[in-house]
Structures are given as C-alpha cells and as structure tokens.
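Changelog note: in this version the structure field was regenerated for every chain. One regenerated record is shown below for reference.
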Amino acid sequence: MTDENRQPLEETPEVADAVEDDVAVSAFVTGGGPDSDNPEFLEPGAEPAVRTGAEQEWEPVDLALAEGRDPTPENIERARRELERDGAAAIERTVP
C-alpha cells in the first residue's frame, strides 16, 4: 500500500469499533473504593492513620543505604552517630 492509498488511522474500522465500545476494562475498575479519583475523606477533627519510616527499628547500615551511601565502616559509623544524635528525625529526613 502506498502513502497515497493509506487511510488515516482515525478512519479505520478498528478505531471506529474501539470508539463505539463502551465496555469497562476490568483492569481499570476499582470497585468503588478509594483511589486517586475517589479519595476517602475524614470527618472534621479526625486524625489520619499515618505510618512513617521511623516507626520501625533502623540499624545504622539501613540508614546509610537509605541515604544512598555505600555500607563502608565510615558511613555506618556516621549513620550510627546520626541515629544517636537525632533519633527518628534522622530517618524522617531520609525516608519520610
């Protein structure tokens, strides 16, 4: 088929069939639960259930890796001092 005889994609029967198809795609159906289009709203004054990275136990090597550093003895020692000095705030800065 030459370029002169080509039909624009928008005018092909396959596209027309797809446009007329109103069937929902099961992968996109959320079942009506909360999602980015249908958020769940809290009552006024209600506290959200928020979990942060600092709620679990952190080893200095974990903090060094989370900061993108190699787990060398120097980086692990720096992370240990940071955890001792700042506690959960050291983690929150890196993994909120």
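Spot check on this record: Residues 7-27+52-94 form one domain. The chain has four helices and no strands.
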